[in-house]
């Protein structure tokens, strides 16, 4: 059954992870390996079946193979254009699968781009899939381990299921019955039309990717520990400082930040290396104070994140089960003028999906301990995870692999201008702060 993540099923939210591989990668072997990995990761071979009442099920029958598209590699930054295409391409929810792969390929180097529908995977899922894919390529005769069955996130697996008042349930029941009487259903073709409208309204995407070397990464970790803050808080402070400097117009939503939080270690059951959706988010009101030192700002950021994390219900998505599934579906259809109705409009505004809500959204996987050598193949760099959402002005994906920290930044040029100004400012603040006491 598709549970809390049902709210994401039709939304234009694809998650991307990109990796640069040095060595000879055979595209046919990639296709074969992804086919074999279906036995390890069941959600690589599912489609969505929507019932008459709007609820959904993952179905594992008659699902086509994972698409592997090969593009001849002509430049070092060519893969960024391919990522942009992947972010914008909808998945066939009625037939599946919900993961695809692109190879920007040459004989000696290959950029591998894994893209998944957010409903079935988070950023760490794509990291584990990348590792498993490279292991298969290195040892194609080795037996596939698994399966790693992803546990459901429901009332039996979360530490404390979200609670709602009886009056809220009663009112929502009335709203659901009124909505259900309309008999509104959305098909895959409707979803594709909504995705098209979404991207017509979100033109001018700009992607930036860069990496710290191992020495700078180690210095960042060491200095953050010395200042008694997490690397996450240090990074966030740098980008808040950059936002304050480069975007001096103090729009209210830029005081709100969104932090992705993994729920893999917060369930009552082990998740391990499962491919699935195990992510939640934290909303924190944060500003950078230029009259304070960088590290005093970082400690303030760290304290606010810690406080907010302690009181935030990371499994609040389960509350969406109170809302009729097709009413949830209708929100973005309403946003882009493809359905009318008072109820979708009110709920759209209640959830704040009708406007830009956050200045920055940060997804930091942290240190992702996977090998960098796979037989004749070397994992040179990893960027991501990244997705694009129009309720967040700027999004940043951060991951550390092989001792090197990588950044992946997405925004819209018509909104933020040249994003390299933000990147350069953030790195200037970060390097100045890390070098203060070294």
Task: Please describe the structure with a list of short key phrases separated by commas or semicolons.
6-stranded mixed beta sheet; 438 residues
Structure description:
- With 438 residues, the protein is α+β, with helices and mostly antiparallel strands.
- The strands form three sheets. The chain has a six-stranded mixed sheet with strand order 4-5-6-1-12-11, sandwiched between helices. A six-stranded mixed sheet has the order 7-14-13-10-8-9, sandwiched between helices.
- The longest helix has 18 residues.
- The protein is globular, with a radius of gyration of 22 Å.
Number of helices: 12
- Percent of sequence in beta strands: 15-25%
- Low-pLDDT runs: none
What sort of overall outline do the alpha carbons produce when their principal axes are compared? globular
Q: Give the termini separation.
A: 53 Å
Helix content: 25-40%
Oligomer: single chain
**Strand order in space, largest sheet:** 4-5-6-1-12-11
What would you report as the Rg, rounded to the nearest angstrom?
A: 22 Å
Order of helices and strands: EHEEEHEEHHHEHHEEHHHEEEEEHH
Tell how many strands the DSSP assignment holds. Answer: 14
Instruction: Specify the biggest β-sheet.
Output: 6 strands, mixed
Kindly state the mean pLDDT as a whole number?
95
Helix/strand-derived category reads alpha+beta
Question: What does this entry show, briefly?
Answer:
With 438 residues, the chain is α+β, with helices and mostly antiparallel strands. Helices cover 34% and strands 23% of the residues.
């Amino acid at each position: 059954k598709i549970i809390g993540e049902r709210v994401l099923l039709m939304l234009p939210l694809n998650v991307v992870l990109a990796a640069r591989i040095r060595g000879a990668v055979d595209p046919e072997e990639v296709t074969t390996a992804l086919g074999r990995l279906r036995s390890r990761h069941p959600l690589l071979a599912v489609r969505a079946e929507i019932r008459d009442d709007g609820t959904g099920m993952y179905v594992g029958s008659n699902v086509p193979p994972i698409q592997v598209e090969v593009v001849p590699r002509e430049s070092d930054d060519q893969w960024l254009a391919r990522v942009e295409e992947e972010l914008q391409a909808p998945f066939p929810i009625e037939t599946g699968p919900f993961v695809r792969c692109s190879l920007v390929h040459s004989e000696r180097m290959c950029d591998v781009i894994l893209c998944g529908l957010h409903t079935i995977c988070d950023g760490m899922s794509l990291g584990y899939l990348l590792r498993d894919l490279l292991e298969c390529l290195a040892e194609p005769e080795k037996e596939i381990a698994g399966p790693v069955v992803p546990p459901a996130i429901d009332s039996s697996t979360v530490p404390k299921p979200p609670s709602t008042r009886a009056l809220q349930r009663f009112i929502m029941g009335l709203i659901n019955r009124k909505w259900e009487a309309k008999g509104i259903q959305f098909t895959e073709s409707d979803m594709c039309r909504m995705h098209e409208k979404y991207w017509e309204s979100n033109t001018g995407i700009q992607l930036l990717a860069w990496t710290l070397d191992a020495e700078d990464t180690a210095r960042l970790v060491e200095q953050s520990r010395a200042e008694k803050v997490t690397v996450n808080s240090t990074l966030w402070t740098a980008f808040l400082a950059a936002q304050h400097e480069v975007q001096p117009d103090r729009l209210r939503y830029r005081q709100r930040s969104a932090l992705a939080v993994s729920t893999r270690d917060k369930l009552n059951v082990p998740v391990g290396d499962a491919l699935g959706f195990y992510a939640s988010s934290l909303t924190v009101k944060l500003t950078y104070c230029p009259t304070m030192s960088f590290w005093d700002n970082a400690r303030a950021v760290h304290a606010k994140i810690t406080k907010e994390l302690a009181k935030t219900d990371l499994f609040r998505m389960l509350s969406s089960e109170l809302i009729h599934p097709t009413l949830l579906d209708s929100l973005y259809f309403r946003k882009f003028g493809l359905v009318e109705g008072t109820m979708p409009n009110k709920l759209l505004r209640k959830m704040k999906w009708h406007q830009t809500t956050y200045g920055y959204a940060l997804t930091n996987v942290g240190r992702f301990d996977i090998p960098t050598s796979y037989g004749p193949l070397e994992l040179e760099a990893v960027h991501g995870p990244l997705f694009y959402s129009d309720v967040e002005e700027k999004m940043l994906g951060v991951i550390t692999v092989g001792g090197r920290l990588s950044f992946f930044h997405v925004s819209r040029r018509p909104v933020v201008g040249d994003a390299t100004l933000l990147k350069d400012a953030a790195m200037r603040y970060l390097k100045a702060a890390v070098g203060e006491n070294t």
